[in-house]
User: Fold this.
Amino acid sequence: MDTEIQEHEVGTTRTPFGFCLKCTHELIAEGDGRCSECGLAFNPRSRRSYYAFQPGWMAKRFLAPPGVLWWLTFLFLSIYLMAASYAPGGFLIAEILGGFALVVAGGFYLLCLISSLLVHLRFGRIWWGARQLWWLVGPCIVLIGLLLIFLQFPIRVGFSYSRSAMEAQVALTAPGPPASRPAWLGLYPVRYDGNRPNLLLVRGAGFINSNGFVHLPNVEGTDYFEEGDLRAWRFDGDWFLAELQF
Assistant:
């Protein structure tokens, strides 16, 4: 008798007891403990290794591990948010767009999580198996990115790369008019304050106020400096993070 017919025969010892986690093909207890369709191993005594009921299309999508695109989406969002945070005050417009995309992706992840829990309640299978834990990779990537932003990693990398160019500008004894000075210093698009040659404002950074860097070699014993509409916090040596208030 044909093997496939025997597998589906009811009332014999070859009656299916579950369904394959990979291809959802019917499984029987006899044999070598592997799915006859895809070869995935299973253990009839372990409910973690098979589906008790055959899942439908949506259930299979939520119970299966996510694809590489899922992780790449969160990786891109993390890199994007870090890139939007490498300037003093951040590039607000870019941060808003990145944050909105992150909320959308996070909402989709939450939907997947709830759906998977409902699938677990319906099919009686343990949710936190090794296959489902891969869903957590994307959010973990975002958490790592947010931690790096909190530790000022993006801005310190940008500053380290641009420091020599910025120091060369503030060291000029006769810098000339702002229009004649470089529009980019390292990684930063800058604009200049004609009254403060040591102040380098990053174009597009901040929200209402203007943000940038200011070089204050004569300020000692304090990590905060204020003068008129300028507020500054010590960042690295004689360099301060500057905020020019309107």
Remarks:
- The longest strand covers residues 196-202.
